[in-house]
Design brief:
The protein has helices at about 5, 20, 30-50, 55-60, 65-90, 100-115, 120-145. It has about 160 residues and is mainly α. It has one domain (about 25-145). Helix 3 crosses helix 5.
Length: about 160
């Protein structure tokens, strides 16, 4: 049985969504993978929320449907990333150019989608930003190491 990070590559759809507009690295498979991973994470968080008082303090969604929240987080993160890619292409920024907004595009997209279901206050937004800043680099390095991202030092530009 393949490890979970290799299973994603078995899904068809490594086809770019709109290469001329968003670049070749925004694929249908990536969107589906983001939604599936976010849904798994929100379901785990839901179980922890139900079991431990500690997790109720940090929950963004409480008793909302974890499948809906996972979809919104995953889709929103990818929509935010796609929006940033579109803006960078319009500004003629070369693909692969390091940018400080890399963490925040995901967060803004996810927050915008989740806000349709859960009102986000200052505390929730600050928690999302802090969590995003803390988790972004290790998660990105994990995917680079596993060969699921081409954002490493040998990145191929288009």
């Amino acid at each position: 049985m393949a490890p979970p990070w290799k299973v994603v590559r078995l899904f068809p759809g490594g086809i770019p969504i709109a290469p001329a507009v968003l670049g070749a690295h925004k694929t249908y498979r990536g969107v589906v993978a983001a939604i599936v991973v976010a849904t798994v994470i929100t379901n785990v968080q839901s179980l922890l929320y139900d079991s431990f008082e500690f997790f109720r303090t940090f929950s963004l969604y409480g008793n909302h449907n974890p499948f809906l929240m996972g979809f919104l987080f995953g889709f929103g993160a990818m929509a935010g990333d796609a929006a940033e890619s579109l803006i960078m292409r319009r500004l003629n920024v070369a693909p692969g150019t390091p940018r400080r907004s890399d963490t925040f595009d995901y967060l803004l997209g996810a927050a915008a989608c989740v806000a349709f279901v859960v009102p986000l206050g200052v505390r929730e937004v600050m928690f999302m930003v802090a969590g995003g800043l803390f988790l972004h680099a290790p998660i990105k390095q994990f995917f680079i190491h596993r060969g699921m991202s081409q954002d490493g030092p040998d990145k191929k530009t288009q």
